[in-house]
Design brief:
alpha/beta, seven-stranded mixed sheet, 3 helices, globular
């Protein structure tokens, strides 16, 4: 199993945002340099059913990618939350994943539990877990 180091400050931000939106999936991009996770770009979820799905606002996604280029950063990860369900890619997540080189971070929120963050690589419909190490 591959592993990635997730800065505590970034992990805490993701957990906080997911906890603040317990009824809807949050989503966004994470940039970095040389594979190191660095900065979070939140993007509005414009899916019709935001409780069960996420769809990044196209304008927000384009703006985030532009800002990454200007900062000389790379897209390292895509994140979203699963309110009330496990931190594991759903069939829809696998089908819609369009960036096979990007790490896929899922934040699971469940009542009375701390949000859990798990990482995955999704390539050709196959899911491979990536250990998320706090740093």
């Amino acid at each position: 199993m591959d592993s990635v180091r997730l800065p505590r400050s970034l992990a805490n931000e993701l957990r906080r945002l997911a906890s603040e939106s317990p009824d809807e999936e949050i989503c966004g991009l994470i940039s970095g340099v040389r594979g190191e996770l660095h900065r979070r770009y939140p993007i509005p979820n414009v899916a019709r059913d935001r409780r069960r799905f996420f769809e990044m606002d196209p304008k927000g996604q384009i703006e985030a990618m532009r800002r990454m280029r200007e900062a000389d950063e790379d897209l390292i990860a895509i994140y979203h939350s699963h309110p009330g369900s496990p931190a594991y890619p759903s069939p829809t997540d696998v089908r819609q994943h369009g960036y096979p080189e990007a790490l896929y971070l899922i934040i699971a929120t469940a009542p009375h539990q701390a949000p859990e963050i798990r990482g995955f690589r999704i390539r050709d419909g196959k899911i491979e877990e990536v250990a998320v190490q706090p740093s």
